[in-house]
């Protein structure tokens, strides 16, 4: 015979109602109270019969997080926060990798493998707003980490245009005049690349500077290294480069240093994502740091509201904050 | 009305039995045939009623992968392979993070959150063989990435002792005599640290060289940077360092370079894991590369056999292969 809610409440020194709120993952429980209850639950080895409750509610207690690739540090770090936020609701998180493929994103929107999940958090690359609007599956959906204007689903993202403009302004503020953008894509329908490119262009235009754009197919170190080599081979190589993510920047850093050039003296370098790698590279990497914990928490909160049947049919757009992290790759030692 | 297995078989040019084998995730279908069938399934939008079948079999079609931390690149890369291998069986993969905490590992062994999964692949840090042996939950279990001798569960790992000895031999072979080990742990009951330390000691003893050991609490860049600073402050700093994973090595690299020392001229540096970061750092990082795809595939195969009720009660121990990757941090440019 296991512990009852009453046993838990007595040990934690709270009401049975509060214990119930914690067990059911409702909000409006203070972190301190939640911690007391969690400890009591753990000490008395309380096991809610989640399977039975989920079946009763027609739910699985499992959500899917669909992202391009788990072995990209940004998505790994973000996933960690999503799993932590979901755990507070006693949800399990299934990870689905799309590799940014349109076909795989479509399949996820058609119901993750036969509706074994209650909801989906999707970080889309290939799929566009029109196709999202035509979606017939009714599994709860939240888009994470990009922005489809007037899109048909809830989404949460940083303001990518403004973030890109800010970091480009920082490079221009160093007195650099040949600032390149590295990371444009040819086929992105809804990813962040067009937004980051737009922000770069706004900053360059505001200062009357000419644009230099290098394209890539994937946002990985190898592509950053290759695109940087291509930039160095041009008649007028850049004196500053804004890479659309940190992995591209770390690949570019390798190419620049291997060519015997100095960072930032010859080429100032900046990324976006604030992955841990860039805090320990030599030089350390200047970047834009999205608040990943906030992004994850908002995404899970929005999804919970959808799963619970709220909050009406209108899609919501929520912004998350970001900061510029100025490090050695632009500021020097 | 959806497509039938017969429709799929006709389009793919194979037998109905073969289609059934693919849909049910059985082995012994060639990759080429599997691809043809998958394409036909996709084109005809075939939807097996997995929920119904799973319920009939008393299964969820979901497994858990429990690992210390998803935002460690080694585990993110490994997770990618596990998710890919599980997808071929049409399994979903829930990720659980233990942070290497004994309490969380215990809870996972007690049945992941009320048995909503069919099986568990666990990468243990804290839990020991005795406790594993005393486990009463009967959820299928496979241990991944370490070695508990004569342990009570199936497990798959590289030979960590031999790998550590090999990489230490490589450092000694460069003519270095003050080779340090960075990454020992105080409280590891079953992790890889004691095995890697044992391999290092074997190599040092074989050459009559004195041991230098730096301890850490976590296997992250920050801990590597701090432990390296502590090694540099000793009266006789090392002329080579074997770090127990690549993250520690990349942190140590930062400390060495920031101190104005050269790699490998002043200090040769090696890691273990072969994460992508070390292929693009400057200098690139010498390391041991475990075959992560093989590790993942074996783990999923072992788990499938356990879930299917085979292969008897005796635990199995399977070794995966590894290679030394000699790069600039020991070989120079």
Automatic annotation (TrEMBL), chains A, B:
SUPFAM superfamilies noted in UniProt: lambda repressor-like DNA-binding domains, Periplasmic binding protein-like I
Q: Which GO terms describe its molecular function?
A: DNA binding
Signal peptide (from-to): none
Where does the record place the HTH lacI-type domain? 3-57
Annotated PROSITE patterns:
HTH_LACI_1 (PS00356), HTH_LACI_2 (PS50932)
Spans through the membrane = none
Q: Does the keyword Cell cycle apply?
A: no
Print the keywords alphabetically: DNA-binding, Transcription, Transcription regulation
Lipid metabolism listed as a keyword: no
Q: Which domain of life is it from?
A: Bacteria
Checking InterPro entries in the record gives: HTH_LacI, LacI/GalR-like_sensor, Lambda_DNA-bd_dom_sf, Peripla_BP_I
Stored Gene3D superfamilies: 3.40.50.2300, lambda repressor-like DNA-binding domains
Q: Pfam families, from UniProt?
A: LacI, Peripla_BP_3
The name of this protein is: LacI family DNA-binding transcriptional regulator
Q: Which organism is it from?
A: Streptosporangium fragile
| Taxonomic lineage | Bacteria, Bacillati, Actinomycetota, Actinomycetes, Streptosporangiales
């Amino acid at each position: 015979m296991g512990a009852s809610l009453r046993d838990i409440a007595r040990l934690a020194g709270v009401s049975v109602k509060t214990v119930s709120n914690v067990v059911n993952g409702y909000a409006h429980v203070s972190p301190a109270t939640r911690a007391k209850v969690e400890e009591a639950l753990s000490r008395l080895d309380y096991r809610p019969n989640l399977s039975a409750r989920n079946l009763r509610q027609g739910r699985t207690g499992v959500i899917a997080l669909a992202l391009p690739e788990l072995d990209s540090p940004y998505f790994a770090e973000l996933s960690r926060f999503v799993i932590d936020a979901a755990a507070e609701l006693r949800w399990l998180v299934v990870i689905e990798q799309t590799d940014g493929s349109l076909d795989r994103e479509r399949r996820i929107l058609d119901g993750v493998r036969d509706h074994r999940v209650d909801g989906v958090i999707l970080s889309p690359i290939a799929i566009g707003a029109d196709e999202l609007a035509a979606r017939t599956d009714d599994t709860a959906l939240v888009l994470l980490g990009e922005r489809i204007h007037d899109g048909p689903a809830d989404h949460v993202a940083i303001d990518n245009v403004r973030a890109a403009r800010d970091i480009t302004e920082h490079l221009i503020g160093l007195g650099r005049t040949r600032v390149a953008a590295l990371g444009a894509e040819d086929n992105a329908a809804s990813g962040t690349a067009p937004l980051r490119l737009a922000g770069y262009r706004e900053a360059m235009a505001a200062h009357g500077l000419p644009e230099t754009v290098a394209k890539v197919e994937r946002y990985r170190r190898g592509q950053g290294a290759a695109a940087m080599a291509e930039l160095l081979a041009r008649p007028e190589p850049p004196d500053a480069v804004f890479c659309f993510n940190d992995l591209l920047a770390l690949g570019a850093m390798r190419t620049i240093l291997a060519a015997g050039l100095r960072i930032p003296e010859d080429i100032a370098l900046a990324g976006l994502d604030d992955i841990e790698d860039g805090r320990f590279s030599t030089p350390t990497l200047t970047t834009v740091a999205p608040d990943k914990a906030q992004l994850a928490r908002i995404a899970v909160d929005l999804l919970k509201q959808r799963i619970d049947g709220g909050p009406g049919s209108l899609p919501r757009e929520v912004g998350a904050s970001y900061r510029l992290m100025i490090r050695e790759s632009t500021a020097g030692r």
